[in-house]
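Fold this sequence, please.
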Amino acid sequence: MPQSNRLAGRQVNGGSRARADVSTTALGAGELTATEAWSRRVRRVGGLIQAAFAVFWLVRGSVVIGGPASAVLIAVSGAIAIGVFSYAIRATAGTAPRPTSREGKRIERAVTAATILEFAAAFALPVIVIAAGHSDWVLPSIAITIGPLLLYLDHLVHVPRYRPVGWALTIGPLLLVAALSGTALIATTGIAAGVLLLGTATAGFRDLALATSSGRACGS
């Protein structure tokens, strides 16, 4: 695809950037801008991290239910997680190399800083809510830190799917805390957040797999 045509699709209109998700089209790594390359990398590396945390959320939410239902949920969650990780490793290998340009390094620093802030908040907020006597707020206090990170990543590297999920993880925990407490709050937060994160990660892996297969088809 000519460079002029690709740039035209990303021109500024009325002071706002175009949101076309060209990072998942059939372009080779060398044809992508730094933002597009990092959009792919966030889908892959970030997706693997999301999937790992999703397993924690699902197990944590299932454990508190107790009884046979808890064992079934944990077994199902584990089987699905194994399938997702296997698919990700097989289908996305080599799709998201780290950009080495100056702009790529700048984006990398921004992504790293945002991730570190999220981890710090995810450790600090549970300590605060436990000290306040609300131990059942621990999972919601962690979940609410993930939402702003996803919203920022969408803004930074254009992963449109992150926007609704980010808002859900920002507002959802507040609504759950207002409506539920105790075991119901922990189970609902854990399972809902786990499903959202695992689904989001899987969709990102599929984006990369489709881009790879489209690129092979164009090259054949």
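The mean pLDDT is 88. The chain has one domain: 3-213.
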